[in-house]
């Protein structure tokens, strides 16, 4: 007799669920899922080396063999290449499976050197771990192992030890599939197979550090961590990277109270486990010997060490003196490098003191109104039918966002429509790439979106505009006008604002943005240059190297009577400050940060702050007490409570737990729309070139310069033009030319670049060598330059 | 300059459009470049990468998989003497010693005049005719030391130019595929229609 279970019979069948059995236990798998992925949700671990959930399976290592029952008896299959099927019965630990897995491991170990005691991977090595858990215990291989030259440097950062390599294809697959930099491949064949670069072409990928993290053996090691620590000595805490505003989830690892490594953590909404090399390796700057340990105060023409009590008293006096004039003679610049709490504490202090002039952006961002437009998350962007790029080169400025957008295009989920003045990292993946001369974009965007094929594309589904400042030598107005044109064509479009500084969105939302219609950073600097600012507070910013117009900054800093800097190191801006307060750095403080999509996630302290340095919020609090305007904060928890209850956008993060893991999105207000009339910059004199100044991954930013592993990668300044324009100028590639704008000249190397449009000259910002900033004038709409050969 | 010559660039473009993806043309292009220079130069690999849109590392990875692509200069005539079982039994080792003495180079070496490269080879699949050798991959069967002497002399005197083109040349008559039969540089997933030569009538 058959007993019919009435509940089971009537239960709706989800077509996306496939029921399988793993080791006699029922498992609900997703349709198309691999056996190994389904097994990962159970307690039965299938050993593996080549399988990585974020990359295409290749079945390279054969370690994940399992048995699947078939009508002809059990069959051995590779679980990372076999999709689940209804009713499938899988065994992962039968005698024959064990024998097969032991056999594979014995083969993998045949050539593996077993130098675990001196290998950086020892202790956290999948090969080591699985040799213990799934290995045969001993080897029958008595012959001589394969020998190669011990580690060879395949880039400035990554070392390769080919003897240890088990040819799992993870690094090469990552380089090709995820990063798009297929600079390492398998070469030769059979027993000679090895991973190599092309001779003399290093693995200079911005994402090379990920290959080190996913290497299942110690074949790939990174210079900054080599022989620094053993895994069992490491302490770690989960945190969020604030090197740029993507907000990748990381673990921060330390040994003996010193940061030694960051590793990517896989979270779905943001970084999928990947990190860029800048974010991964700039922890070295936290350990820099140049870190400030005590407050410094000006005595004569020199900065001398002083105590916190003297320093805070002096700061209070300087601010009080300035406020005695009027509230407009004090200004705060910066705050985007700190936590939400840091920014909020300073905003509260500024509110109490009536300081309206504050700006976390440095004139190279976008007006905060872009945050009020309909917002898209990174996930929504990468699921949109059309991604319109009106943004800087994501590969250079927001590298992991580049990986996500590239993935969306590669997997044919989205089509990229790019508007730019020179080719970006995403140009090869763009469906349409439309060039424009800076200042003309609004018109170009309008015309491009009016073509029939584009109209058709825009109606296919969601449209997300990735918007940011692509050019430092161009007024913000043009980008906003172009954005308005897009909204005119697609009113339902959403926006992903890509402002690059770590926590700029959090700082602006917490209140470090111009209040009561006062001016922005550039107005502040102009006022300072005109002698109208008595006291200027630099909150973790170095405007001398971070603002395009260095002449203006120079005048502003000189004319300011009292300059207070809160920073981790001495830089060009605070070298002549009246007071420098040492700030705790990333990894030395707790709090929350906000990424470019408005995701609030926690940053965690791992090590003791350097010297007597303190977090920004603590400095603000103590200063408020010293100025008798107590902001009423006694602890970080206190401050966080105030933040989430005062600023509505942060309310979703009121439960501290929500900021862990995936984090939580800011509350959004009803979106407004943007409109505007398109204007066009003045026409370019045909003999001139229009300047595009943009940032690259490795520039002279403080965190890069003070990280020894990265500092050497920064290249010298050069100006790039189209090869046809180079021919017109009549000089050789690499020659020195004179570049002039409005009475200023610089002499700089010129290089041909196919990705630069004709009539445009591209200058990467803030590189070593020639200072290009004299050419830039932040108040002009666009900058045109003459390029002349040197006779 | 060991990038492709102008004539060969033209040929390369003809070859590329025969394939659904440009990079599928890599092996024929590697042969073309080996034909031009006698071996695969670094510059050629970089050039091929530019032509088919892959990195030089990928070109190198592909090329180094194959024994017949050489990365060091090779003599005009590459003499591969088989040394596997049947040939070994039939005197291949003696033949190799003889060749080494005759040419004055060890197996693997190239004569100073750059005419001959002597190499050891694995089974050439002609065991009934052992011992065998190949000159630029063209067979000589049941080779005696005297045969070898004569062969080398004749090659050196240019008497066998018709039979043995220089190393790298695949065939004396270049294959040509009519442009209408080309698939075109289109990714397979983008191809909706049948190839032109199928006329849309035949089922794929």
Structure, explained:
The complex is a heterodimer of chains A (791) and B (204). With 791 residues, chain A is of the alpha/beta class. Chain A folds into five domains: 6-93, Roll (Ubiquitin-like (UB roll)); 142-285, Alpha-Beta Plaits, CATH 3.30.70.20; 296-365 and 503-665, 3-Layer(aba) Sandwich (Rossmann fold); 368-497, Dimethylsulfoxide Reductase, domain 2, CATH 3.40.228.10; 689-789, Barwin-like endoglucanases. Chain A has 24 helices and 34 strands. In chain A, the strands form eight sheets. In chain A, strands 15-14-25-24-23-16-17 form a seven-stranded mixed beta sheet, with helices on both faces. In chain A, strands 30-32-31-34-29-33 form a six-stranded mixed beta sheet. In chain A, helix 9 (340-353) packs across helix 21 (636-646). The longest helix of chain A is centred in the middle third of the chain and has 18 residues, at 308-325. Chain A is globular, with a radius of gyration of 28 Å. The model of chain A has no long low-confidence stretch (mean pLDDT 93). By secondary structure, chain B is α+β, with helices and mostly antiparallel strands. Chain B contains seven helices and four strands, in the order ααααβααβββα. Chain B has a four-stranded mixed beta sheet with strand order 2-1-3-4, covered by helices on one side. In chain B, helix 1 runs antiparallel to helix 2 (26-37). Chain B starts with 5 loop residues before the first helix and ends in a 48-residue tail after the last helix. In chain B, 31% of the residues are buried. The interface between A and B is medium-sized, with 16 and 14 residues.
